Amino acid sequence: MLFNSSTFIVFLPVVVILYYLLNHKYRWFLLLAASYYFYMSWKASFIVLIALSTLVDYFVALKIHGSDSKRRKKELLWISLILNLGLLISFKYLDFIISNGNHVLSFLNVSTTIPYAELILPVGISFYTFQTLSYTLDVYNGKIDPERHLGKFAVFVSFFPQLVAGPIERAGKLLPQFSQKVVFNLENFKWGVTKMLYGFFKKVVIADRLSIYVNQVYSAPEDYSSTSMYVASVFFAFQVYCDFSGYSDIAIGSAKMLGVDLMENFKRPYLAKSLSDFWSRWHISLSTWFRDYVYIPLGGNRVVKWRWYYNLFATFVISGVWHGASWNFIIWGALHGGFQILENTVKQIKSGFLDFFKKLKLLRIFIVFHMVLFAWVFFVAKDLDTARTVLTKMIMFDFDFDPYKLYAFKGSLNFLLSWFCIGLLLLSYFLRIDLKMKNAYLFNLILLVLIFFLGKDGNAEFIYFQF
């Protein structure tokens, strides 16, 4: 059940109405039933995995909290880690591991090949796995007490607005909200509707339209000019932002209509003035997860310089692996790790020029955007050969501005509409639109008109569903 489908447009109001009609003591059951139904709409058998993860982390956390033995607590934590990460690795990375193993065997002239498992990747497994792991880790570290109510914990794991693509919430913030007595609030409802419409605008008006050009150019990069490659890469940068932040906006808005607050996942990332600033604005729930559960446990920056750089690089490589089972994603993560090391090295150089450079905000935004753009090539390219072709054309710029080649798809109208949509997004960036503004009704009407007239037909999946 996609957010941008007619099924969800019917599903959500029904859940919201029933939610406020029910006594608050039983609302957890409605949310659990709705969340499981939502998840089973992709493939019913997937529910077994999420139920297993829920039960294991529920009981493991209780046992950890009740144990006085550090050794026993660590053993229990390993049970959670092995089960959750074992399932994630099996479904998401097993064939990638087998493929690389077969390459090694071939290199060694071994005729035997390992058969592929060909398991179907459960939707959202990377997201809910990290959410349940953070809960168990927080209980283990004494940051929170375990949830005693199994049903409410199950809702925390499977809450449908953020189940399949985040934001990845922390138990300390989200779990208590399922025990609060929520009264219908018109302002929260209106804010939620506006947030959702803004998300739909990003998704169906901008992301889905840009995808036409991106998909066509990246499917055969050898047929297009350097200019087309560059434009397609810029389009993808905005496509992936609007696609994912659009999903997050719809998730946050849906939850708000139910009186539940989810964290903001994006804060105008393409206005970042440094790479570290970018990662404080992009996919915030994931970047803070890696900071708290990978980077800091490795030692963070409280170690000697080489170890600090290692911690940075390792964290970003692991982040790349989290995104997908391919060398493209590993390289994408490694690039960002390398960028972080480069940035921190430059920061330590005392120079009058660097002091002056810090004042050139627009130039810094331009440079950071293009460093991110360079890395995005590996994110969107289907394989390393495609990425190499794209980067070669972009670096060896041919200055071919032939309009026919540049338009690349369905004539100039769609091409110009794509730029127009990006312009609308940037306008909303700089206007700093407040979703609680007094003229929200007018803003909603404008969004509806844009969605109706400029929205791309069809229910395209969100990019981050594949993770």
UniProtKB/TrEMBL annotation:
It is a multi-pass membrane protein. The chain crosses the membrane at residues 6-22, 29-56, 76-94, 106-130, 362-381, 406-427, 439-455. The keyword Manganese does not apply. It is found in: Cell membrane. Its EC number is 2.3.1.-. The keyword Disulfide bond does not apply. It comes from Parvicella tangerina. GO terms for molecular function: acyltransferase activity. Its main location: membrane. It holds the Pfam family MBOAT. This is Peptidoglycan O-acetyltransferase. Belongs to the membrane-bound acyltransferase family. GO terms for cellular component: plasma membrane. Keywords: Acyltransferase, Cell membrane, Membrane, Transferase, Transmembrane, Transmembrane helix. One of its GO terms (biological process) is alginic acid biosynthetic process.
